[in-house]
Every structure is written in C-alpha cells, then in structure tokens.
Amino acid sequence: ADELVDLQVEEGLEAEAVTQLTALIGTTKDPYNQAVRRLRLGDIHLRLAKKPEALAAYGEALAQSAAGSWIESEALARVDSSFRREDNLKGLAEHLGALVKANPQRLGVLKAQAQVLAETGDKDGALALYQDILQRSPGQRDLRESYLDLLEKLERYADAITQTKLLIEQSKTDKELQLRLATLHHKAAAKAASAAALDAFLAMPGVDEFDHLRVANMLDNWKRADEAKQRFAAAIATYPKSFEVRDAHAQFLHRRGDKAAAIQVWSELAKGVGRDELLAIAMALIARGEHKTAFDLLSVRVAEFGHEPQFLAPLCQAALATKQAKVVIP
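The chain above was modelled as a monomer; its predicted structure follows.
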C-alpha cells in the first residue's frame, strides 16, 4: 500500500496519493505507523500547496508521538520548514504558540518556540520559556546547552557563565566545557577567569600536546599574544620532543612577525626528521613565502628522497621561486 502511494507521487498523482494514504491511515492500528504515515501525508499536502492541511497532518503526528521521540522532532522540523520556505517567522512563532497551548508538557515544542521567539527579537519571551523548560527538567543536558547557546548569542555572558558552571558540575570529566567557560570569560573581558578555566582544562586527565596547542592557539586568536607565547613555551617544556608542538610554535612566531625566530625553529626541527615531517615543514615555509629556506632544507636531503615525486614537487616549486631550477633540473 505504501508503495502505491510512492508510485502515485512519482507519477505526479499527488491528489490520488492523498486519498490512498488517508484511507491507509484510517485502517492502521499501530499508533507509531499512523504517525509516520501522517508525516508523509503532510509532505504530500505541501507538494499540493495545501499548507493548512499539511500543518494539520504534522500536528496529528506530533500528538501521536512520544515526547522526545524522533517523530516529534521530525514533525516540528517539517512545521518549521513549511514556514521558513515562505520567510514567515512571525507565522511560525504564532503556530508554535498554538502547539504549545495544545501540548504544554512537551519540552521539545517549548524549545522550538523559544528558539523562534529569539529569532523574531522577543528575547525576554525566549529566555522565560527556557527557564520554564529547565525548571521542569533541570538534569537534561541538551536543553541546558540550548539555553546556554541562546544566552551566548544574546551576549548575556554572566548568565551563560553560570549555566556553564552548572553543566560542569553535572559533567565534571567533560574537558570541552572548561574551554567553553574560558571563552565566555574572555568575551566578558575577564582575562584572569578565562586563564583559570584554561588551567583547569589542562589539569584534567587525558590531556595531551594537542590540548596544549589548542589553548595556545585560542589565546593567539583572542589577540592575547603574550599569554599565547607563555602557553607555547609551557607546551614545549612539557613535550620537548613533539614535532607538532615545535612546528605549531614556529607557525605562531611567523604569524606574529618574528620570522627569523620561526625559520630558526623550522631549520632545527628539520634536522634528522623523516620525509613526511620534512615535507610538512617545507610546505609550511612555501605557504608563507619562505621559498629559500624551504629550498635549503630540501636540497640537502635530495640523496635520500630525490627519487620520490612527493619530495620533488615542493623542491621544484621552491627552486623555481628562488631561480635555482638549474640546480634541480640541469
């Protein structure tokens, strides 16, 4: 029966498909299958430009679904899409308001309305809805994170920081929350607090050199160069043999304008490394216009790797840029 509906839609017989599917829904006893078919019915109504009928079908599917189920999410997503295709956020907010009245216990519906209210400029209404949601379900992390996203978007950093700390209490092993807390403190112009959150992140179990680099690069992106420099130094002290740490430090130095120091780091790093690491250094240099250094570092390793195309490509590129092609290609 469902295959017949699909065939009718493919053949452009949407009206006939609506009749067939409506009859099929009437004979379907399982509520789950009924709800799935109502979603399909709503989609076909939309193809026929019958939005009220489509919204009614989605509403019935929503009513039959379990709270928090994928059917509930799909019904809400399709309602959302049906209004957004018309660029009608006001109508969407009004329709979701009606759904909230009809389904006052469904947190997913309240969340959808809160998000749309925020988009339409009703910030206080959106925040009030989220506060209501969290009072009903204080331990549901995804809802608190959605609320946190809204607070951050609205630049209410003090409230966002409070919510992040609550999440950290609920998930003490989640490193990413410490980074988010650091970011919020930075946005709130609280440098000392953001640095403390970064320290807490690096003190957590399972931290590696890449986590140290994330912290250093975050500070660099925040234009806090002195702190970033200190973090790179700490990473090097902690992981003195890490190629990735020293390469990232060289990139940082070059980015900050200390090109001579960056080239020195790359030149030292290139001594004795394997082909892949050497090529990574060369490509980093070439990308930054340091073709001479790239050529110098590659040319002394021709005896080892000169037979490999992966090696010859950047070597020739650097040689051409420095007018030394004859040295590579006599």
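The chain is about 80% helix and 0% strand.
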